[in-house]
Hints:
The chain is of the alpha+beta class. It has one domain: Hotdog Thioesterase (Thiol Ester Dehydrase, Chain A, Roll), CATH 3.10.129.10. Helices cover 30% and strands 36% of the residues.
Amino acid sequence: xxxLTQVMLPQDTNSAGNVHGGTIMKLADNAAFVVxxxxxxxxxxxASVDRIDFLxxxxxxxxxxxxxxxxxxxxxxxxxxxxxxxxxxxxxxVRHVATALLTFVSLDEKGRPxxxxxxxxxxxxxxxxxxxxxxxASIRQETREREI
Length: 148
């Protein structure tokens, strides 16, 4: 797991003072990249964004806090889950503002997918999260096969 934090500045927001969803998505992709890279110690790339759910607005001056963890590993791919919170630095109020699921692929030096290390599951919660992610991976694979 990693925690990425960044203060949201005026260039991150629209004219109403709300942070652009694309800004949050880019930070989520960066956090997922770090998790995947640390796990594999190889080059990794974003394969898909399974979903991102925006639950509440983020405002100029808020501290965005992204908690990213590895949920699942397959042969060459990994699912990273991200919980995104926002903290008002004046009041200290923390709100859950978004969640995201991203899939990354590990690549060799020639840009070909390579085996990722298995995920070590240490708790019942880890095993539950892994199984749920494995089901999502299976659905993603079935969807890709139908689209071809």
